[in-house]
Amino acid sequence: MTSAVARDDEATDRELIDQAHAGQRDAQDALARRHRQGAFLLALQMLGNRDDAMDVAQDAMLRFFTTLDSFDREHRVQPWLFTIVRNQVRDLWRRRQRRPGDGLVDGEALAGQLVDHSANPEADLRRQQLRKSVWRAVATLSETKREIIVLRDFHDLSYNDIADVLKIPIGTVMSRLHGARKQLKAKLKEGGRDV
Amino acid sequence: MSEPCGRTFDEALISGYVDGALVQGDAQRVQIHLEDCASCRALVDEITSVRKVTISSAFATPADHEWPAEAPRSTASRTARRLGWPVLAAWAILVAGVGLLEAWRDADDLLERLILVAGVSGLSLLFLSVLLDRLKASKSDRYQEVHK
Ligand SMILES: [Zn+2]
Q1: What is the residue-averaged pLDDT of chain B?
Q2: Exposed site from A87, A144, A170, B109, fewest CB < 10 Å?
Q3: Which of A46, A42, A26 is closest to A80 using CA atoms?
Q4: Which residues from B are below 8 Å from A29, CB to CB?
Q5: Closest partner residue to A178 among B11, B54, B77, by Cβ?
Q6: Which range marks the domain in which residue A156 is found?
Q7: How far apart are CA B68 and CA A58, in angstroms?
């Protein structure tokens, strides 16, 4: 167990991918442990619902590992996995006969999943209230705007990786992101929240 | 393109500037404009502070035990595992077939041969039904790899 934890921290994704390709199960486990929470969070932010997010994240991890053999080791794991999550989210919407673009997520439910890891939660109450308002506003954005905000301003993906995940030219990333940020700002103003 | 504030570049560059994603020339242009435009400075500040709020957020994540205990197998090991049984079955059928042929040749009369035929067809039917059940089960259980 200790060695597995150490490996989690030390090995790069690429090393783990190589070991996983060679059939090492503990390398696969380390990759799963490293990336599954990100997959879950992206799904949660897109769906607003914990159970759905867990289903999608598990399916995405399954798909990730069953396609591992065709995974190009020059690629990075996170954008690849996020692409899978995004497709699974769309599949779920399709199964529920919901078209991308016509649904919002439950902002209260999403904000309700926020946790406070600060050392002094009471002193940080105002900040946490602010986080709740911002995520409620994020929930009201269209999927296209929400996903780009989430990828950049929560998961901290580079423009390159965002272009990869969203399958858009890199030049489009900046303009779409800026449009989303402006809309989020407007929604916050609407809600009387100036950040 | 000229904006009310006098900016001569696309507003989206403000986001690129915040993200440090601009080529040097663009970054300089934005920088110079920001020095004397309060409204664009305010936009930079707002984008920066909203980003601080979102990126510092933490959500409840599933505990380790809520995830399947093992990472699903990659295709290579699944292929090996899937090939394993058919190869074994083929080997068993071959061995049985050779044995059967021997027994058929050695059989002295019709009765012995009849018993042989009955035994083989009984076993084959049994094998076939098990095979069909397995096929059905593997089709309906798409999570077999996760719950394995
Ligand atoms: Zn300006």
Answers
A1: 80
A2: B109
A3: A42
A4: 70-71
A5: B11
A6: 106-195
A7: 8
- Domain termination site, one of A104, A125, A150: A104
Region of A192 (left: φ > 0; alpha: ψ -120 to 50; beta: rest) is left
Look at the block and give the residue holding tokens 């929604």.
A187
Please check the confidence at residue A38 and state whether its pLDDT lies above 90: yes
Q: Going by C-beta distance under 8 Å and a sequence separation of 6 or more, which residues neighbour residue A152? A: A159, A162, A177, B19, B51
**Same domain, yes or no, for A69 and A110?**
no
Q: Name residue A76's beta-bridge partners.
A: none
CA distance B123 to B126: 5
Q: 0.80 exceeded by the pTM? A: no
Question: Taking CA atoms, what residue in A is nearest to B10?
Answer: A175
Split at pLDDT 50, 70, 90, the class of A114 is: very high
Which pLDDT does position B134 carry in this prediction?
A: 66
Task: Give just the sign of the alpha carbon dihedral B69, B74, B80, B84.
Answer: positive
Last residue of a domain, one of A78, A104, A130: A104
Q: How many Å apart are CA A64 and CA A61, to the nearest integer?
A: 5
Q: Do A79 and A11 belong to one domain?
A: yes
Record: contact A159-B21, CB cut-off 8 A? yes
Q: Which amino acid is at A148?
A: I
Residues in chain A within 8 Å Cβ distance of B144 = none
Q: Give this complex's ipTM.
A: 0.89
Which stretch of A143-157, B21-35, B76-90, B93-107 has the lowest confidence by average pLDDT?
A: B76-90
